Amino acid sequence: MSEMRKHMEQRHELVSTLLAIYRNEHARPKKEDARRIADFMESAIATDTSLTYDEFGLNRTILALKAIRLAVDEIGIRGHALTAYLLRAVVCNPEQCELVERYFGKDVAHTLRGFLRVEALEVKTEAMRTDNFRNLLVSQAGDMRVVLMLIADCVNLMRHIKDTENVAAQRKVSTEAAYLYAPLAHKLGLYKLKSELEDLSLKYLEHDAYYMIKENLNATKRSRDAYIERFIAPIRQMLDAEGLRYHMKGRTKSIHSIWQKMKKQQCGFHGVYDLFAIRIILDSPLEKEKEQCWKVFSLITNKYESNLKRLRDWLTVPKSNGYESLHITVKGPEDKWVEVQIRTERMDEIAEHGLAAHWRYKGVKSSGGGVDSWLADIRSALETGNEGLLTQSLSSDMKEQEVYVFSPKGDLYRLPPHSTVLDFAYTIHTGVGNRCVGGRIDGKNYSIRQPLESGQTVEILTSSTQKPKAEWINIAQSNHARSKIRSAVRELTAGDIALGKEMLERKMKNRKIDWDEAIINQLIKKMGYKESFDFFKDLGDEKLDVNRVLDTYVDLGRREQGLAERAAIRSAEEFNMNSEVMQKAKGDQDELVIGRDLKGLDFQLARCCNPVYGDEIFGFVTVSGGIKIHRTTCPNAPALRDRFGYRIVKARWAGKGHGSYPITLHVVGQDDLGIVNNITSIISKEEHIMLRSINIDSNDGLFSGILTILVDDTQRLTALIKKLRTVKGVKAVSRA
Question: Among 50, 103, 357, 505, which residue's CB has the most CB atoms within a 10 Å radius?
């Protein structure tokens, strides 16, 4: 009898869920497609009866249909992603995807493979808590609809495992909900689902804490409701007097939020004072949204004392995920602090339903942008029904993103794009990288050159006889690995370097030539080498003619000596600016020393190139007798040399820079919310660098900024440019 009742209940669930789905025109399949899906699933279950129920004893098909209903209603998913998810209930083997492709097409099979790839991921809880693992999950999905459906799947499953006897499986699912799917839901703006996942996971993982908070909330509900009514009564009168259309509601903090606050403040339930917030939701036309929100803000702060430190203005500058609202904390009756949230109907819908709300309000964007580019792609695909757009945008993004691989112990590592086995070896440890002879990827042996893919488990194979080789630099993709390889090769070639150095010293001794380190450094650069060890190694390997090297060294030494004897380098105090300047300018051996506190010298920094202390420079004698200092890379330099070569004076800097050189930087990047703040924040934190002006222009999703800064020298300028290039969204930084 019980089996009969169970069968009838399941039949009722199935029918009611199907009817709910069919009422939605976006979720309703064609009659022939529905028949084909039913036949396929019935055949699969008949072949393997274990597909009927999951580990919790729940009917897999009914559970999948309920998740689809949730995804359609709360997120707005439609199309073949729903079909793929439903088939997932009876397809557990990737090989079966070929059969699915024959029945339902490539798109359904592709999305189904994404579900199966994610399901195949198994990792320790520690790794699951990291952004790396969440990024891995998204990359393995290959289709953002897979991620959205998995969030719906997790919420639906958590709703149905309250009374399960499989406690271990319940805790596993709850852990995934808390550390994996809740953060993903938050990032996607699915706040309602995120909050539900957090509360349910707490219910199963921290049973006593959950019910303690729940019971206390229930016990204080009457007094809380009474206080809310006393608080909002005068506000309601003021809003009515202004003729505003609105409704208000009190929102109690989620149980998970209260628990987190209790842990953070190390207090009991009654030590948490801000248990609830008042939400004022305006029925406002789009063009008057901000005006009316600030009007309400003014009325409330005139009535109640406010804490401006707790003001959160996401109205002027929305959150990156599209959230818009105005939050203020005020002191209500009995001197209790109350949070008030002010927003419009549109903003509230977005706050509650995230992505789904964005496409419901098609064409409405937050003023000032602020939606992550990838999130905007998702919204656009949902708006237009262009499923291919969603797949393409994600796939193209992921191809160039980091690679996430596991060690045999289950630790997750993030590597640069196109990383190889060798890169992973050096990521683990330099010693492992130096002895690497290959790797075992998912149980199969590969060479050190083998590119890695996200989700793979990689074991590094080593040999005590292996040594790093110079050609490894071309195999490695990461800067870290290349640096370690260079260092290791340098150590190994130390003997060759010593031989080359000893050979040069011996020849110099035979020719009675003194060793001068400064001239040696000039020689190395003159011979076309960036690093000394390469130079000396080639000498030791007899790739360079030591006699020719010595001749070059002697020439450099004579030039230095001649310059010293003629005292061509003279300070600005000794420099005569009249006829002497013109006379010396004609010779190519004279050098002008430029400093900040020099006297007796009429010079100016050219505005066409804005030289900074540390730049390679030259002087140009003007008609008036003064000198303008130009960078050697100045765009006007070639013309000046060709036409007025006789007026060119060699120059160099003296002393130190003193932070007053104006520099113009050109910055180009994505027109994302907060990017300008990030840029200016970096500049403001730099010592001896001051932002004088900034001019921003945006067009077609890109911004172009002209920044004028004051800087000490080129060293600080170079460091600043490097930091600015690391800002997310910045495409290029160049000196004007």
Answer: 357
